[in-house]
Amino acid sequence: MPRVSVVIPAYNGEAYLEACLASVCAQTAPPLEVLVIDDGSTDRTAAIAQAFAARDGRVRCIRQENTGVSAARNRGVAEAAGDWIAFLDGDDLWLPEKLERQLALQEATGADLLYTAAACIDENGEPTGRTLTSAASVTFETLLRGNKIVSSSVLVRRTWLERFPMEHDELHEDYLCWLRLLQNGCKAAGIPEPLVQYRVSAGSKSGNKLHSAQMTWETLRAAGVPFCKRCACFAAYAVHGLRRYL
Hints:
Helix content is 39%, strand content 23%. The protein is of the alpha/beta class. The protein has a single domain, classed as Spore Coat Polysaccharide Biosynthesis Protein SpsA, Chain A.
């Protein structure tokens, strides 16, 4: 079985981390390890991770100064022992068969970047009725029209992340990373079913739609998309944004 390292960046996530870790450790395809990167939390995030580690030897808590989600994910990649990296934000959840389904898809397609759809939940864990949809496949050109890849659903070969680490926390850092991977030949495949529960918070980057749109424009700029093409892509992004939330 492929060796999967789960990387969970966490900052002041005491309210949700226990459930997040439980969903990872309940996977039908068990991961090799679970790395919680405590990004300078001032609450009980580290204590919760360490308590979970005492019960499950696969879990390890790595503490660092607060340097942002990109640096936290990159730290996890650098510390990982697995050949594959599965990202999961500390307030999101996986369905039990998530990794098993993705590993089967990887074997069938040979893809190096895999993702799934996600069902939205609110801050109390209640379903909102919305789904972040995904396609069975995506290319650099199609992803320019809007980010269809939820970071908490991603399973990616580690060597790609070593070549193209995450950066620019002031933008959509995950979107920029996926664009760079696909632009350089990484093959992607998706599962249209929601195997992730994505927590929607009013204070998140994507919670403020206007601010999110501004960051999308700047992310396309950072990806090197020419101005005229960027305008066309941004228009497609606006339409996609309306359709994505069902």
